[in-house]
C-alpha cells in the first residue's frame, strides 16, 4: 500500500507519521509542498505541525500551497486523505471537511493523553476495529471545533462525526472535553467518509514505551482496510 | 556622534576600560567600533569576572568530545553517536518581556545546538519566579510558560523536563534557563573555527532589524526603576523561521561545504564574526551593504549590534555558494555572501564603499578585560538549635499536606501540559519524573536529562550548595537507570562587583568543580548570568545544573511510580535527620538558619553506582531520589504516580519521627524491590557498604505512616496537584 505525507514549511510531525506508516507496512513517500504532482497513493496524510508558522490562521496558507490542488483533486475523486492536528486545520481551510478550529477554550496549548470514542465504523478508517474507546494523544493550541447549527445538523444527519472526546468508559460529559469543542468533537469526516480530519495524534502512540499503543491498532487496521 | 569617555560609559564600559580601548587601537574608536567593543567586552560575552574561576572546573573526560568554548558541549554516546548540549540564561529579557524573552531564550539555545550539526531532540528549562503573592509573579509565570511553549512547540522539539521554583529573592529578577540536547554523528560535528583565506562569509536566515540592540549589554547590568524602558532591547522570536533555518542548515550540513558555522546570538553579527575569526586566527572583511536588512537606512552601528533572531554566519568552501543558495532558497530564507576571510587578523567593515571599522580581532577577544574580583568567603553556619517541643503541636498529616502543596514541591503539570513533550515520537519518560528520557531514534539507546538547582542550600553555604546541585543531578539520572556522563551549568548570581555575591559565585563554582571531579561528571558547556539584581538586592545564588546520561537499553529504564502490591520498599543512604534548611524547617517552623545538609561525595558515588548495579541486574521496579521534603515526600510522589500506597514499618532509627520523615540528608534513594530478590539486593548493598533500611511494603490505596496516621492516595493527590492550577486561575 502506498502512502504520501506532505511536508509543508513548518510541518513537524511529518517524520513521526512516516515512521508510523512505514512501521505498519505502508510504502511511504514524503512529498514537498511546492511539488505539483502527487505520487500514486492509496492514502495521503497532512501531518501535524505549524505550517507557515500558523501565521494568519492555522492551516490557511498551507491550504493554498501548490500540492494542495492535487490533494484536493485526489480527495474529490474518492482518494483517502487524512489530516492530523495541523493537517485537520488545513483540511477545514480547504473546505474538504466542514467547520472551523478555534483556539482552545482556556487559551492554552494542551499536550496530554485523552480518551476518544468512535461513533461510526462504516468507513475505511475505523471499519473492523474491535473496540470503540481508544487512548490517543493530543498536542494543540487550536483544536476547539466549531460549526454552525445548520452544519451540525447536517454532519449529524450524515454520520460525519468521526470521534468524540470522552472518558475511559466512553462518557462524553463536558469535563472530558479538553478544548471546548462543540459536542466534544475530536474528528470529522466529509460526507463520503474518504476524508478524515482529527486533532489526536495516533502516530505518537505506536509503541508501549511511548504514551500508549492504541495508535498501533488504528494503523494496523487502516492498512488492512485499504488492502 | 563623537566618541569620548562619557559615551563609552553610556555603553556600559568603565572609564579604565575605555582608556584601554584607546591604547589598544592607538586612537579613539568611532561609534561603530565603540559599540563593537562594548558588545564584546560586556560581562555576558566576555566572562570578565568569571573566566578566572571557570578555568578551575573539570571539563575533560573519556566521553567528552568537546568541552566549553564552542557553541555547546559534545559527549560520546557510543556507536558513532554524540549528544550536543548546553544550558543558557535569558533572565533579564524574560523579566522585561516574559513571552518574547523566554521564547528567544529557547530559540537561542536550540540554535547553539544545531549550529554544531545536531538535530535538537529535547528541551528542558529551569525557571524561577518571585513569591506567588508578588503582584508581578502570576503574569510572569504565564508569559514565560507561553513563551517557552510557543517556541519549542512550533519547532517540533519535545520539552521533556524542567524545574520551577518560587522565592521572594526573584521578585525583581526572574530566572529563565533553557537547555537543549541534540543528536549528531560523531564524524559530522561542525565547529566555529574559520580556516583558509578568501573563503566566502555567508549570512543566512532572517533579515536584520533594529530589535535587540544592546541586548547583551542590558543583560550585563542590574535593574532599576527605569527597567520598563529597556523593552526595545528584547528580541522578538519567530520560531517558524527557526524551524526553516534548522532544516536548511541540516540539509547543507549533510554535504561537506561548510568550513565553520556560528549562530548570531548575543551581540549578533559582531560576536559571531569575531569569534569565527578569532578561533581561526584570521581576519574577516564584511560589506555591510550586503547584509539583508528588514528596515531601510540601518546604520553600521545598528547592523552590527542588532540581536535579531534566527540568523547564522557560515564560512563556506569556495565555489559552493550556488549550491548552498539553492538550499536556502528552497526554505525561503535569506542568503547573502557578505564578506570573506582575510590574513589581516583584523575585523574590517565596509559601508557605502568606506571602511567604517578596523579593529584587531585579538583586542576584542584575548585582550578583553579579565578581573580578579574581590570576594568574601562564607562561613558554614552554626547548627540551628530547634527546640523539639515545637514539634509537639504538629500533626504529621497536616505537615505533609503543607509540604506537598508547597509551590516548590507541588505538581507542575499546569506548566508542562502546555509544552509538547511527545513530538518526535521518542519520549519514553515525560516531565514529572526524576529525569526526562528520549530514545536515540532508531536505536535501543536512550538519553536521560535533568535540570536542577537548590538556591536555598547555595545561599546558606555556597560551597556545599554547589556540590549538592551536582549530586542531585547525578541522582536524578541514576534514578531512571541512566549512567551520568556530563553536565552543563547556568550560573545565575547577583552583581560580581559586590563581594558577597562574588563570594557566592566563587564558592558555588568550587563546589560544582569538586563534585563533578569526584563523580567523573565533567562540565562541558554553560553560561554565566551576573547582575540578577535590582538596585542593591541580588537573587539567591542559583546555579542550575543540566545533567545528561545514557541508558544503553531503553527497556531497562526505571520510573518512579510504585508498581506492584506486596513489593518491598527500601531506602538506601543514611538518614541522620538533617532538618536545617529543609523545606520543613523553613516553611513549617519558619526557621531559616543553619547549614544545608552535608554532601558526602564518597557516599554519593558509592550509593549511586550500587543502585545502577541493581538496576542493571533488573532488581529495581521503581526508584526515586530523596530531595526537597524528605522521605515522606518522595514516597508520596511514588504513591501518587503509581496509584498505590505503602505501609511503613516502625523505624528502627532512633531519631524523632518528624525529623526522620522530613529530613533532607543527601545521597539517598527509595527503591521498590520484589520480595523474591531481597536477599540478592541486600547482599549487593552490604558488599558495597551501602547503608539500607526496609521502609515498608506496597499496599492498595493508603499511605500508612504509623498506627495513628493514614493518608489516602486521593488525599495525597489533592494536596499535590491543585496548588498551581488554582493559583493560575485565581
What is the tally of beta strands of chain B?
A: 28
Give the quaternary arrangement of the chains.
heterodimer
Name the helicity range of chain A. 10-25%
Cα end-to-end separation of chain A? 7 Å
Shape of chain A: globular
Count of the domains of chain A: 1
CATH architecture of chain A: 3-Layer(aba) Sandwich
Note the total helix count of chain B: 25
Explain what the structure shows:
The complex is a heterodimer of chains A (227) and B (730). Chain A is an alpha/beta fold. Chain A has 5 helices and 11 strands. In chain A, the strands form 2 sheets. Chain A has a 9-stranded mixed beta sheet with strand order 2-1-3-4-11-10-9-6-7, sandwiched between helices. In chain B, a hairpin with a 2-residue loop joins strand 19 (533-534) and strand 20 (537-538). In chain B, strands 8-10-7-11-9-12-13 form a 7-stranded mixed beta sheet. Chain B is an alpha+beta fold and 730 residues long. The longest helix of chain B is centred in the C-terminal third of the chain and has 20 residues, at 499-518.
Keywords:
heterodimer, A: 227 residues, alpha/beta, Rossmann fold, 9-stranded mixed β-sheet, two-stranded antiparallel ribbon, 23% helix, globular, B: 730 residues, alpha+beta, 7-stranded mixed β-sheet, 28 strands
